[in-house]
Hints:
Elements: H1 4-9, H2 11-19, H3 26-65, H4 69-105, E1 125-130, H5 143-149, E2 153-154, H6 155-161, E3 168-169, H7 171-190, E4 194-196, E5 201-202, H8 204-210, E6 222-223, E7 228-230, H9 235-240, E8 245-248, E9 254-263, E10 282-292, H10 297-314, E11 319-323, E12 335-343, E13 348-359, H11 361-366, E14 368-371, E15 377-379, E16 381-389, H12 390-400, E17 402-403, E18 406-407, H13 414-417
The structure holds one RNA strand of 88 nucleotides.
Amino acid sequence: MLTLTYLRERRESVISALAKRGLDATESVDRVLALDVERRVIQKELDDTLAESNTLSRQIGGLMREGKREEAEAVKTATSGLKTRSGELKEKMSALENEVHDLLSHLPNTPNDLVVAGNSDKDNELIESWGELPDLGNHKKPHWDIAKEKDLIDFDLGAKVTGAGFPFYKGKGAKLQRGLIRMFLDKADEAGYTEYIPPLMINEDSGFGTGQLPDKEGQMYHMKVDDLYMIPTAEVPLTNIYRNTLLNASDLPIKLCGYTPCFRREAGSYGKDVRGLNRLHQFDKVEIVQIQHPDKSAETLESMVDHVKGLLEELELPYRVLRLCAGDMGFTAAITYDFEVWSAAQEMWLEVSSVSGFETFQANRLKCRFKDAEGKNQLVHTLNGSALALPRIVAALLENHQDADGVKIPQALVPYLGFDRI
RNA sequence: GGAGGUGUGGCAGAGUGGUCGAAUGCACCGGUCUUGAAAACCGACGUACCGCAAGGUACCGGGGGUUCGAAUCCCUCCACCUCCGCCA
């Protein structure tokens, strides 16, 4: 959520930054600013009314102590008008505050200066490519065929027990999942991230904190009986650890990681996008999160991007890095680098990681601040990235490393599996 | 799930209707003293909003209520503790 102060001071630049997303925010922004002016007028009046009322109350207290009951009663009657007045003003205040909050919480983050304008993935910038696209010759099976032949993943069984998009992993397929998770966690650990095993359900406040609510309400599974949401990513519980906290500058950076299953309703998806492992309702992911000093957030983003590159290179998967254009970024992001790996049989790029900087957007929702060098409280910057999401990695591993009679496991992964071929 | 209890500033802990945003101790920060440190002493020491400022307002788990006035009384929700029940 953008801060009111920022909006007040930088009206033009907020509007032009949001225009890069293809959003004309002029009306909302001006409405917020107008309501804010109104709010301050009301607040002044309310504060004055309450101040007067407090003064009279103290007088009554004094008179009561001195036993001057009648005088006290007289002052009491004088306060009744103030009371109704402050009641009205309070109501107006909270109505104004609610409307401002509502408008603000529906405005997406302003894109970073590095981010280009654009409406769709066509406008994303290719930043870097790594690895050679494999020539599979006549062994070119899509991963769902390999998974079936080798009995690694059972989609039908998942559909029977739960529904489409909830596969079972079996035998070497299950071991592959476990091995990848361990490898990713070990790498995060080596890079200084503290591992957490977070809750898989979160409450409404947490959903708001990282920006899933109210914007992406329909994307999460909602347990209505207990009013809890299944996490769509470990980002939510991990980042919300620091909701409503005041940190010291020396606490920064805070580096967290965690493996969790992730749950997404993916309403409206269809066709080849959801074939096999391409898009699931439940999938496994290792997430890295950093809470950082604003001055260091750019270099931190770089380091997180480098971390993900390292993982993909160890897995010997050709990838490319895209800097998303403003219109393709998520609601909360100021800047996002997407990683895509080549799926050699499907002959398409699959998104396997998204590394984002949120600047103060989440921090403002979370109320996560730190005491800066001057002792003033300042919002932190939050960043996160997938390192990595499993299903599409598995898809690419199976497809890219296949040969005549199976799949070769990349060297770096062998110690985690105990076998080098599937 | 049932019964009872607790929830105050970074921590500990007073305060049970009226100058209480809140005693006191510890911690932290600044200073005096010291070659340096410790001790001792002095001072500062929550957050948010409004205001150029002086200052004002709100906040004692969250929300609501009673009252001229609430940390203090009432309702409700949440968290934690104890006992009972159930259970991986």
